[in-house]
């Protein structure tokens, strides 16, 4: 199938390389013209490294022209950080066509940002927007055109906006991710599967000392201790309580299953945590005030959780606490703004009105 991948980070390179490796026609869009020129000069190739070896794959197109990238494709995948979504959504909005599927893995309810951008651009194409609970790859770039894939997702819960187009969207996404996709309802359900706002805030806040002391620190290895895991589980319980209060059913993909040796398989499958830490790729420098774990997962992800909890009538003391502490670390007030329902233009909707919008679209 024809797939457009938007962005130039770890997830985008893993997506472009892995899709090309599977035989799809892949077009990669990046905003930086110098990087695009360099990538073309290198033959528009990506070196993919995984458990089976090294794979040199060629992309059909590398471009700064988003219209050229998405014209005629079935699937548009954008794994860019949530704080980059508004700009990309505005650039993409005029070019969407009937039947195209925009897949955001994960998105922090970014599906609404892309859908609203298309609406504001006057584009009435019958496109659909979907998001899931995690990036489909545990991955890191090892060079300008080289990416290492440590794990491929085994289960991806996917929510679709509008949900009455879910059948088509899931079929298209399923051809790119065979035997991996699991429907989980509407886009808000998909957003409330996002693992990033659950796993990363405790790891960066409770490891703030060693993160700032050591040149490199692996928050998933030495940084994942029993005390932190207990806090992570408690924060995850707040997420699951919000899902239940809004009427979303199981499975809720509790993060505890990511670490478990038995029981239900989580999104990355059994043993993924050990393979992640064994790779060494997550022993890295983290600038707390700048890193996406803080700016995306904590600030945007937890503000969405707290805001949605308010609609659901659920208390989220830990999520609020991490917002306050994260803001203090950055010298800002994270309890104000962020990605709330108000910020998304949905704050005036009652629960039933929001559910109708999620089902039927604008």
Automatic annotation (TrEMBL):
UniProt keyword list: Oxidoreductase
Protein name per its UniProtKB record: NAD/NADP octopine/nopaline dehydrogenase family protein
Protein's UniProt keywords contain Protein biosynthesis: no
GO MF assignments: NAD binding; oxidoreductase activity, acting on the CH-OH group of donors, NAD or NADP as acceptor
Native organism: Bradyrhizobium commune
Segments forming domain Opine dehydrogenase: 183-330
GO BP: glycerol-3-phosphate catabolic process
Signal peptide start-end: none
PANTHER family: BLR6086 PROTEIN, OPINE DEHYDROGENASE DOMAIN-CONTAINING PROTEIN
Domain Glycerol-3-phosphate dehydrogenase NAD-dependent N-terminal: start-end pairs: 2-101
Pfam families given in the database record: NAD_Gly3P_dh_N, Octopine_DH
Lineage, highest ranks first: Bacteria, Pseudomonadati, Pseudomonadota, Alphaproteobacteria, Hyphomicrobiales
